């Protein structure tokens, strides 16, 4: 049998021009971390370093920019400044391709994911999701993207449900949730307790005494300003609504009512006054 010589492959495609230049794409990367803890910030820095190296090593790519939002919610793209800057640069023709780790990093809202993917696709700008290995310019249809983005949105909803459950359990144990003190009371975060602030309590007693005597909110607010009393925030101006809010606050009769408002859904984060829809 004749001796066979294997001619090893040359993987250096940069030298293979075939008489024309390789078309280089302006590639950007989008990174996001969802909290501002030290570990997450380290992760953020690692992502920036990773994508910088990845893009620079590919001879067909040119690094356009690294877009990164630190400690910004993933459910609302309007709150991510660098994301919006990236989309604007895409619309201005400065970017040919966007790389991101996963669909959930890009957006955890199905409508937002589809909206921006379609918007970029119309400009022939690809979005490549590394974990799912999806290139939006080459994939067949949008069904897979819809399914995966729906899964990412479901993850947010599950986390929200677990957080709500945890808060309700704290309320049932009598723990303070979302209360940072009010006029007449000081909040102690170390043991999550409250104590009377005697200096401010003098103002509270004056408000209730004058209200019992028949004075309205506007009269009491003017009297407080004339007496030189300051609000909890240290301002000398008193609004009628501030006075009436103190009078209506159940804490001044020894009760704490939790859950006065609730979040309608984790995507819009819209809060509503609780009229009995939630415990």
UniProtKB/TrEMBL annotation:
GO molecular function annotation: DNA binding; DNA strand exchange activity
Family matches, as Pfam families: Recombinase, Resolvase
Recombinase domain: residues covered: 184-279
Gene3D superfamilies: Putative Large Serine Recombinase, Chain B, Domain 2 (3.90.1750.20), Resolvase, N-terminal catalytic domain (3.40.50.1390)
Positions of the Resolvase/invertase-type recombinase catalytic domain: 26-174
TM helices/strands, residue ranges: none
Name the UniProt record assigns to this protein: Recombinase family protein
